[in-house]
Amino acid sequence: MRKPRASWLERSLSDSKPFLPKNENETDSDIDPRKEENDPEFYLRGSRRRSRLHIAVLWLGRLVILALSLYSLITLSASAVKYIHDATLPPCHCGNSVQEARALGCKYDSLSTSWLPDHCRDDELTALFERAGPGPNGAWPYHASRNNQSKLYTIEEVSYFAEKPDRERIVFSTIDWHDKHCFYLLVKQLRRKSKMEYIGFPDATAHAEHCATAMTEGIPGNKVVIGIIVGFGDPTPEETRRFELTGSYLEEDPL
Q: Matching PANTHER family, A to Z (predicted)?
């Protein structure tokens, strides 16, 4: 009698080998864990990889430190050069009258509220400042006093206040004017394109401290409270002495 033909499933099951014989497994394997554990080269290779990574990190750190050192050196050198350059420039003084100021080549700078020579002005920033106000074409309002806001002056009229006696050479404007004035003067200080001059303050630090305090007081921007002193550049010895004694360049603070 003919034996029944085996099905496809039976043939597949009979031919499969789910597990290799023990001797076959040991013969075909290329990895012997016991051999690697006892092989010094196995640990040496891992140590070399860690050493290369450590060296790379060290060199990267050295490069970062070198870059920062070079940047600091360049920055300090530039500051020193600028300081020496400013020290060699003439003062920002423009005489004692509009006629004398013009004869000395000075122009009125509304950002610094003073007549200044070329090396003490940054005309580009001043032009931006004069277009940052609330009036037509960005003009700023200049009032006769805090209480008399009906009288307005043009920039040219304000420039002539420098010739008046101390207690009369002052006009008034808004908090917004003062905030923009502080902002653009700080930009001027950072740009370092011109020698700095501060009417009413002995140096840049005093002016920066004043601006930082005033800009955080929260007074409405359109409030007219800012007294603007107009001058001819660097304060006179008498003005400096008065500031040291009273904290003001004016003999009296007008309303």
A: IG-LIKE DOMAIN-CONTAINING PROTEIN, MAJOR FACILITATOR SUPERFAMILY TRANSPORTER
